[in-house]
Design goal:
By secondary structure, the chain is α/β, with parallel strands linked by helices. About 30% of the residues lie in helices and about 20% in strands. It has two domains: about 280 residues, Aminopeptidase; about 120 residues, Alpha-Beta Plaits, CATH 3.30.70. The chain has twelve helices and 18 strands. The strands form five sheets. It has a six-stranded mixed β-sheet with strand order 1-2-6-3-7-16, with helices on both faces. About 45% of the residues are buried. The structure holds ligand BES and manganese (II) ion (2 copies). One manganese (II) ion binds next to loops.
Length: about 450
């Protein structure tokens, strides 16, 4: 199905309207905008031809549901996506305001890309599904049933989605979940995501003296929590860049040499990787390639760290407290509960008695892997091959979508991760963008997935 220029303009115009609404789920200031976004997509879903469109309340932001059941004896695809976005900070690093979408060309997107928070993650990718559905309804080519479940809390951990799926198990009953919230290797190297890492996220608070002190009067005699926290964090990796927490690797899935060799056949250009990031050298766990380090190996990273005086100029102070937010990406068989426990034990064991230490767990989730020998994978593979003219490469991703493990557990179905972004699209960063090629290619590919899936299932 080729899109006419007129249709492309219409779809793009609607996406621009969607991107203008700042649906930042993490910041209560935007709560009304998040809700307005739910209304906007519910309206679009209905206009596209969905039945029973509902904005369903949860304890947090609502879930937009809609469906088209053409024949209950046919298979059902559940489309999942998220309409919430990450905070735009640091706002001063954006070349144009994050909620005023603009079109620009980039070296990887010579046809143009749309710049806005959420362009790729995930409003642009989620919206492809609504438009693909609209086209299938128009042309009378929807070959099976479809349900939509679009949530507004993915970027804050999807805490209400688990209970929602439990509660509405029957309403959500389906044969497969289809998600576009991941990337392809390149616009001429299509790929399908076959794995996601899990996530354990903690906040660490170190307390030294009961108040900020004069760093001259007390300095040298009283523990400085910022100094100590830096040292503790430094001890969490050894010289081989392995994580030193005892037991951390205990449950890590062993991958055979053959499978690793297969993985490393995927195209990867180290020079362009480095030049894109303007780094002179990469760094990671010894004995593994970059592709492996970002897919089959677990990690530990400080996401933010603060304490003491961080304002303008120099204020001499010995801080009372130091904080860090730390993420650990997990691979199959590791669980956030166990990893957080090991982390806390080790940090407390390492810390000197001159400070108190508190570890607060945040949201997390399990890793997931999807097999490639299933009907749903084959359907996605055929769809991408038809759309890109090349067979897609299966590849595990480093990111996390914790609810994928939950779909398997609660709804008892597999998920197809057929994303269309590029890793370089700056999701979660300033100047996030989504290629127009990618947006339209996604809209063309999705109906092909439906076609092949319905064929293969019958
Ligand atoms: N869409 C991303 C995850 C992703 C990005 C997977 C690129 C594969 C490739 C998702 O919105 C996300 O950001 N997930 C969070 C975890 C969540 C619990 C906040 C993440 O991976 O940090
Ligand atoms: Mn996402
Ligand atoms: Mn995200």
């Amino acid at each position: 199905m080729k899109l006419s220029e007129e249709r492309k303009d219409q779809f793009l115009g609607e996406l621009i309207e969607l991107l203008k609404i700042p649906s930042v789920s993490a910041d209560p200031e935007y709560a009304e905008d998040v809700r307005n976004t739910a209304s906007y997509i519910a309206e679009k879903l209905e206009q596209a031809g969905a039945d029973n469109v509902e904005i369903m309340e949860t304890n947090g932001f609502p879930i937009v549901f809609g469906e088209k059941i053409i024949d209950s004896s046919l298979p059902t695809v559940l489309v999942y996506g998220h309409y919430d976005v990450q905070p735009p900070d640091p706002i001063e690093l954006w070349n144009s305001p994050p909620f005023e979408p603009v079109l620009k060309n980039t070296p990887l997107h010579p046809e143009g890309a749309i710049f806005a928070r959420g362009a790729c993650d995930d409003k642009g990718q989620m919206y492809m599904h609504i438009k693909a559905f609209e086209l299938m309804m128009e042309n009378n080519t929807l070959p099976c049933n479809v349900k939509f479940m679009l949530e507004g809390e993915e970027e804050v951990g999807s805490e209400n989605l688990g209970p929602f799926c439990e509660k509405y198990k029957d309403k959500l009953a389906c044969d497969v979940v289809l998600v576009s919230d991941t990337s392809i290797i390149a616009n001429d190297v299509p790929s399908i995501t076959t794995g996601l890492r899990g996530l354990a996220y903690v906040e660490v608070e170190l307390t030294g003296p009961n108040r900020d002190l004069h760093s001259g009067v007390y300095g040298g005699a009283v523990a400085n929590p910022v100094n100590i926290l830096s040292k503790l964090i430094g001890q969490l990796h050894n010289d081989k860049n392995e994580i030193t927490i005892p037991g951390f690797y205990e449950d890590v899935e062993l991958i055979s040499i053959e499978e690793r060799e297969e993985m490393n056949k995927a195209p990867f250009n180290l020079e362009s990787y480095k030049s894109d990031l303007e780094i002179d050298e990469i760094r990671g766990e010894e004995g593994y390639t970059t592709l492996e380090r970002t897919s089959i190996r677990p990690t530990l990273d400080v996401n933010g760290m603060w304490g003491g005086y961080i304002g303008e100029g120099a204020k001499t102070v010995l801080p009372s407290k130091a904080f860090a937010k730390i993420s650990m990406r997990l691979v199959p068989n590791q669980t956030p509960e166990k990893i957080i426990e090991l982390f806390e034990q080790y940090l407390k064991q390492l810390a000197p008695e001159s400070v108190k230490i508190e570890v607060k767990p945040h949201h997390g989730g399990l890793p997931s892997v999807t097999p490639t020998d299933t009907v749903e994978y084959l359907a996605a593979s055929k769809a991408m091959e038809e759309a890109f003219g090349k067979k897609p490469i299966p590849q595990r991703s480093g990111g996390s979508i914790p609810i994928v493990a939950l779909f398997e557990e609660v709804l008892n179905v597999k998920t197809v991760l057929m994303g269309f972004g590029l890793d370089s699209d700056a999701i979660h960063s300033p100047n996030e963008h989504f290629g127009l090629f990618n947006f339209f290619k996604g809209i063309e590919t999705i109906p092909m997935f439906f076609k092949h899936y319905a064929q293969l299932k019958s």
